[in-house]
Write a structure and sequence with these properties.
Layout: H1 5-18, E1 23-32, H2 36-43, E2 48-52, E3 58-67, H3 70-81, E4 87-88
Antiparallel strand pairs: 1-3, 1-4, 2-3
Length: 89
């Protein structure tokens, strides 16, 4: 998720409208199999579920985490965006 400053401000405003912090937030990522371990070590989030694709080329990760602010949510997306091939849903 690459966002310019205006889009980032809009996204954070939408998060603040939708959620009362702290709140549970659901993250979903699609990760190439070759990046699986790198993704897990970079995000270092412990509570998740994962499901491999039928072909084994990708793994879907779902995280339900207690977030304290829109900025904290954005920080997770920005970490994930630094890893090649990761899709944020």
């Amino acid at each position: 998720m690459k966002l310019d400053e205006l889009s980032l401000a809009k996204f954070m405003a939408l998060l603040d409208e939708e959620y009362q912090w702290p709140a549970e937030y659901l993250f979903k990522f699609i990760v190439p199999a070759a990046q699986r371990e790198h993704f897990q070590s970079e995000l270092s989030l412990t509570t998740y579920s994962e499901k491999p694709s039928k072909t084994g080329k990708y793994t879907a990760f779902t995280y339900k985490l207690k977030m304290h602010s829109a900025a904290e949510v954005v920080a997770v997306y920005q970490k994930a965006a630094k890893i090649s091939g990761v899709l944020s849903l």
